[in-house]
Amino acid sequence: MTAGIGSPVALVTGAGGGIGSAVARRLARSGMRVTVADLDAVSGAAVADEIGGRFVRLDVTRPDDNRAAVAETISAYGRLDVAVLNAGVAGRCGLHDFTPERYRETMAVDLDGAVYGIEACLPAFRAQGSGSIIVVSSLAGLSASPDIFYATAKHALIGLVRSAAMLLAADGIRVNALCPGLVDTPIITSFRQALVDAGYLIASPALIAEAVEHILSDSRTGQAWVAQAGQAVAPIGYPTVTVATSG
To answer: What is the signed CA dihedral for 23, 108, 72, 164, rounded to 10 degrees?
Structure first.
């Protein structure tokens, strides 16, 4: 499908490679006009040229950069319908080599970047009374992981999504989390073969992009959708917790 005037508009962060570039390609093929946002201008611009989209250089750790990416998207296309907040990094330290600086670097990209991305999109979405935000978390956001601060950030994203979805539903804005399992991206390059040898299934970025399209076609909000190789994408079920009262 060819995107044209009036087609939906998507902003994808971290879209210069890996999952982000696969998502940008998938959405463009579905007929969306896409802004490719990435810190790497070379790879980001290449993806934008490939799909006929627009490139915006974005450091997700900077609130003003996020607002500028949204503003440039709206300036180019006249609207914004979808934001896929995908940018992320592996943990920069653990408990054995902890420094505040490395810890903050992880949290700044993996958590703060999504917070700033949501904040930047809200004025446009509220003005038009609709919008869909997909925050890319991880299975590490639903379970224990040796990459402790990466997992901490990804767990926090789930809480962010569920709470934001509750608060923004009245504005017509849907917020969901995507939790991929192992994906064939540069993050796992150094230990990919060990995973294969151990029998783990590794998903292609294209499979995760397909999951994004599935979420966009679903009307639910506040969900954490699991996407793994060999399984259909589906939201996890949360237990119901009742707040105790004295009455």
So the answer is: 70
